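Input/output pair, single chain:
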Amino acid sequence: MEILDARALPADHSDILHVTPSSVYFRRRLNDSQFHISRFDLKDQEQVDLTPEVLQDHGPTRPFVKKGKVYCLNEKDREEGGETQLIAIDLHSGKSEHLASWRLGGDLTLYWVLNERYMVLLHVDDGTTAFLYDVETTRQHPIKDERLYGITENYRELYFSSSR
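Output:
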């Protein structure tokens, strides 16, 4: 077993996304709303940004790693009403895949990634709504469980599982 001193990384412990024997993947924050998904190679001590463009999320940002991909939101042109994109970034190639887009007022938060197909998102505007998004069918299914509502700043320990 090898122990990594995370203090050597340009990231907070909460920004560590995934660790392999040769690399550490993390969210490199530029400020409160902008970040890169980056890799730190342990052997040569080099840092590489996997995202060529800066990603942006004004709400509580919560990237997820599932099966070698990082899932996160990216806000575009927020000042002009904007678009929020759901993207997946391959950890090895750095290739980014656009999975969905929404034009909603308020804030959209990626709350949970069940697998590469189902995502739970919270939308906070005048109130809070939650929905399950199916990447394959592009359908949204409302979630009527109020335990999710109003907690985007402090995530509760609600866990989701799928029978697949």
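The longest strand covers residues 34-41. The radius of gyration is 16 Å.
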